[in-house]
Design a protein that fits this description.
By secondary structure, the protein is an all-alpha fold. It has 14 helices and no strands.
C-alpha cells in the first residue's frame, strides 16, 4: 500500500552515483546517518545500481521503487530499530562488498541476498523483540515483477535470506561463534558450503552492529537511542509488575559499563574475526576499540566524580 505517485517518481528519477550523495560514501569512516532520511531511498537505488544489481537481476525500475518504498513502510518508529537502522545496516553492507571485494569470496546471488536481508532484517520490529516474520516474503514479491520474471531463483534468494536474517538473533550468533572462530583461524574456504553460510552470518552481524564502527559521535548518539528503546521496554515491564533486567531499567542501568561489556563480548570479537579474513576490516575493528576506550574514559570520569549518577546521557567528550 505505497502511493503510486511515490512509485512513479522513484521509478523515473535519475539514479546518482554514491559519491554524489557524499564524497566519503564508500569510506568506513563515513557516518551514513549523516544522510537526511528523505534521501535514503535514493541512497538505496544508488547502491543497487552501483552494485550492479539492477542489470544483473534485470530488476524493473518500478519494481525496485515499490520494493524500497514497501520495506521503508514496513518499519515502525521505535527510537533505534526503525528505517534509519535498516538503511545504515545496508550502507555498511555496500561498503563491505566494495572494500573487502566480496565478489571474490561469495556468489552474486549470495551478495544480493545479503544486501536485501540488511534492508529487511528488522521489519516490523516493535522496539521490544524483533518479529521478522514472512513480512519479507510480501515485500520481496514486489521486487520480482510477476510477468515472467527472470528471477526463477526467487526461492533461492528467500532461502538465503531466511538463514541470513536468523544471524541477527543474538542466541544464534553465540551458537555459531565457535565455528566462526575455527573458520577465521583456518582461513575461509569458499568451496565449503558451511564456510559460505557462516561467512554470510558473520557479515550480517557485522552490518547489524556497524553503528559501533563509526566515529565516536555516532556511537554516542546511537547509545542514547538504544537505551531509550530498552528503557521504555523496562518501563512497560514495570507497569506489568515485572522487574526488568538492569540493561532495561532506567534506575539501575550503568550505560558506559554496559556498553564496554557489549563491545568487549559481542561487537569487538565480530570485527576481529572479520579482520582475520579480510585485511581492510582491521580499520573497522580499530574504530570499535577506539569507541570502547572512549566509554572507559567516561566510566572513569564518572567514578572520579563518584557522586555523578551513571544514567546521565550527556557524556563529557
Ligand atoms: C550498541 C548496542 N548495544 C547493545 C547492548 C545490549 C544488547 C543486548 O541485546 N544484550 C543482551 C545480552 C544477552 C547480550 C544489544 C545491543 N546492541 C545491538 C543488538 C545486537 C543484536 O544481535 C546481534 C546483531 C546478533 C549482535 C540483537 C539486538 C541488538 Cl539491540 N545492536 N547494537 C547494540
Ligand atoms: Mg534484530
Ligand atoms: Zn538490526
Amino acid at each position: 500500500k505505497v502511493s503510486p505517485d511515490d512509485v512513479q517518481s522513484l521509478s523515473q528519477c535519475d539514479i546518482p552515483h554514491p559519491r554524489m550523495l557524499d564524497a566519503d560514501f564508500i569510506q568506513f569512516s563515513y557516518a551514513p546517518r549523516s544522510l537526511h532520511e528523505d534521501k535514503t531511498l535514493l541512497g538505496c537505488l544508488s547502491m543497487f545500481e552501483d552494485l550492479n544489481f539492477i542489470s544483473r537481476w534485470r530488476i524493473r525500475r518500478d519494481s525496485l521503487a515499490r520494493f524500497v518504498l514497501m520495506v521503508k513502510k514496513g518499519y515502525r518508529n521505535p527510537p533505534y530499530h526503525n528505517w534509519m537502522h535498516a538503511y545504515t545496516v545496508a550502507q555498511f553492507c555496500y561498503q563491505l562488498i566494495k572494500n573487502l571485494k566480496l565478489e571474490e569470496s561469495l556468489d552474486d546471488i549470495e551478495l544480493f541476498a545479503l544486501f536485501v536481508s540488511c534492508l529487511c532484517h528488522d521489519i516490523d520490529h516493535r522496539g521490544t523483540n524483533n518479529s521478522f516474520q514472512n513480512a519479507s516474503k510480501s515485500v520481496l514479491a514486489a521486487l520480482y515483477s510477476s510477468e515472467g520474471s527472470v528471477l526463477e531463483d526467487y526461492q533461492q534468494v528467500l532461502d538465503l535470506m531466511r538463514d541470513i536474517v536468523l544471524a541477527t538473533d543474538l542466541a544464534h550468533h553465540f551458537k555459531i561463534l565457535k565455528q566462526l572462530r575455527e573458520m577465521a583461524e583456518r582461513g575461509y574456504d569458499k568451496s565449503s558450503l558451511k564456510d559460505r553460510k557462516n561467512l554470510l552470518c558473520l557479515l550480517m552481524t557485522s552490518c547489524d552492529l556497524s553503528d559501533q564502527t563509526r566515529p565516536w559521535d555516532n556511537t554516542k548518539k546511537v547509545a542514547a537511542l538504544i537505551y531509550k528503546e530498552f528503557f521504555s521496554q523496562g518501563d512497560m515491564e514495570k507497569s506489568k509488575g515485572l522487574q526488568p533486567i538492569d540493561m532495561m531499567d532506567r534506575e539501575r542501568a550503568q550505560i558506559p559499563a554496559l556498553q564496554i561489556g557489549f563491545l568487549d563480548h559481542v561487537a569487538l570479537p565480530v570485527y576481529k574475526l572479520l579482520g582475520m579474513m579480510f585485511e581492510p576490516a582491521h580499520e573497522v575493528a580499530d574504530r570499535v576499540n577506539d569507541n570502547k576506550n572512549h566509554w572507559e574514559k567516561i566510566s572513569n570520569l564518572i567514578k572520579l566524580k563518584r557522586g555523578g549518577s551513571q544514567v546521565r546521557m550527556t557524556f563529557e567528550e
